[in-house]
């Protein structure tokens, strides 16, 4: 389409009037051009995103030829409570659903991060301080200090016929060479025989491991990354080939699990999946209470009481029991086992489904845990289901384990322990509720919407933290959410840029992990929802992403594209600024000029209009005003030159336009983008009679000039105050300069600048 300036007339009457105002001020507008460097802040992401293909479309949805691998596991495992070891025999059925023939397959041996030859301590920097506590030297990763012999001991790797297979262990990865090529559409069955010494979490802060309770001599096991797991082979990475160094989490394929866990028979196990043999491992009383819990939608039912758990602590048994669990379409399997466990459960209604919310905790967690944990699980399932998909698994478990928050399908391990006397502070309670919501929320990101955590932490932590914030706000009154509110990210955003990396940085290379991967993307989601897109467009797009990628493997571009595709909002500038950059939001009110249109009629009022009152004290060297004390300046709307109409045969009623604008207040506002990150502008006007008006201007206003914009606003009433971002929703790092009349600290800053000059 070819345009020229005249097509502004080809519009509806209202738009026409608006444009005409601008015609009158055309001279002023053209004067305001500034030299600036083009930061490409509004360029499309283009080549920064992968080229769409038949597996992943340009819309952000899985393509027609989308595929993913599948791994099914049958595992028999025994936990030895006397020696704190675990020994397993597992059979893996690996389905090659890719279009590629495979000569070898890769298995992840994450426990090897703790092996004696681990690279993790080698790549961890350290230095000597004079006053280091012993734990510091343990944290340096030197197993010599603790004498701990960690890592998988692989006994055998065999094919379905029982023949040894060739394998090579490269630290946390094991390559199994196949005798015959695994063709597309084929599957292979093989087995791994292994054992390892369970780590003490107090010493190594492991995601899984044991906690020892000195007072009663019992252990609480939270078992994670406890068995050799298939690596992901994908259309975007081939085989996942990044070693587990400890920080970047996991990339895992979906599959079905059939797991038999043998433990002392007085232990209670919480695990991924559904218990297949309750009559063999639970008492009839426990089964009866369990059945009650399935029908209790208002409050948890205690299945194993504190009294019953405490009784077992002092009289451990020597007999064993085998718990049998099955889970479908999960990417991992974790469990917790202890004779110390109290256990409660209740049912939750999400859509047509009624999953169970459950908690397992030692007496050390009470009375906090019996009160808050299962309710928090329920709250999480309800809120997350609303924003994503109905929670599809049969249960969600929260286990109390000291000083950790860590997630697995259907089960997570959470901190929040009262003092020895059972009392706890409001902050302990709030932090415990927060971590339960967060870790249960991980069922959705990344357990169901299965992103690659080894590459991108924000895709699970950031999106999850955003919904954690929504849950805190929607389910708890006056909850002091730490991550999510825009104002809480300001300290990080304005920090030293040498210590800040873009959100789009690999998990292992992130600096300021919590801020980068949790708080910043969560805040970005909030700003997108509340300020950029609006709730309705955002919620629909976010839900679309969840629906499209549930039980699949999304990549960052799939998220970016879906959010735009489902909302009709071009967000490339937003992803560029918030996800690929380290700029921050900081708008500065540079100048405000007040104008009135000269009244042409020879009325008393017209004659009373004076020209500009000069008040040099309130004008700086750049000609910027600091307040309204100069009064207004009169402008004249001249008659239209007939040449302006070009070929059009109709004309504008100049007098009518003048009459319409006469006596109105026009404010020419100049804003500087001091922080570099482009942002919508929220501008609050306070009028002489005390009333207020808020206007929101889309970020596209910065598309021609990323550093400075000037815009004219017409108001009936005189304005006394202008505030940018009055509700602190854009994470503007310096709000002192968001006002007109300018505030003290800004003029101090100007004086400081002048002094320097
Ligand atoms: Zn997390």
Short synopsis of the structure:
The chain is of the alpha+beta class and 757 residues long. It is built from 20 helices and 31 strands.
Could you walk me through the main structural features you see in this protein, from its secondary elements to its overall organization?
This protein has 757 residues and is an alpha+beta fold. The strands form seven sheets. A seven-stranded mixed β-sheet has the order 4-7-2-1-13-17-15. It has a six-stranded mixed β-sheet with strand order 16-19-20-21-23-22, sandwiched between helices. The protein has a four-stranded antiparallel β-sheet with strand order 5-6-3-10, with no helix packed on it. Helix 9 crosses helix 12 (458-475) and helix 10 packs across helix 12. 40% of the residues are buried. The structure holds zinc ion.
Helix fraction by DSSP (H/I, runs of at least 4) = 25-40%
Strand order of the largest sheet: 4-7-2-1-13-17-15
Low-confidence stretches: 1-35, 602-608
Largest sheet: 7 strands, mixed
Query: What's the shape?
Result: elongated
Global Rg: 32 Å
- Share of residues in strands: 25-35%
Number of strands: 31
Secondary-structure class: alpha+beta
Subunit arrangement of the protein: single chain
Q: What do the pLDDT scores average to?
A: 92
Hetero groups in this structure are: zinc ion
Q: Helical element count? A: 20
The span between the termini is 50 Å
